């Protein structure tokens, strides 16, 4: 597991000990949403930011991965599904670990939605990926949401805590979940998780200040960083938004 551990460590700033991962894999699921046309520009600029990683689907990784600075970790999303499919929370493996490695991956990502009738298959996918990735020394980031027919409130603190625990129990090297807004329960789950916990940005917020406040609260509760997408690339000035997020996570430089 030395290779896995070393590669995961590169996804964290050596001074702050925190991580900022820019998630740019939304095109497959959501199509031509606002801001999606800025992705290539952002990939060229991310090296001058203080972000530690970027998440891409395999097609963009093959075509534009060369634009990503070598100091920034390339995380390839293995899961796919569109907003048009039924059920909308379905995610299937659309990329293998060896294919991700050939595309230049420093780590891989699997998306799991719990609390629905496809949960068992998505958990099975996570299990297969962790085994294959660890054989090749690649870290696995599990992005876990509570979504589906059994879920009333996706931000239920108990569900967020269970999501954190699930990722740690099933062998992920990083777990990314939404922030519940309830610091005590989130912190308890994060502190007892055997691997670092990141918070996802979620849907586009009304303002970047709201995002930054949520990040501060999550970090104080025990999060090890953030995995943010829409709230950066859909911002009118995404490069400036990324700079503000990295400053909030790592502190002023």
From TrEMBL:
Entries under InterPro entries matching the protein: Aldolase_TIM, DeoC/FbaB/LacD_aldolase, DeoC/FbaB_aldolase, FbaB-like
One of the record's GO molecular function terms: fructose-bisphosphate aldolase activity
One Pfam family cited in the UniProt record for this chain: DeoC
Protein name: Fructose-bisphosphate aldolase
Origin species: Oceanidesulfovibrio marinus
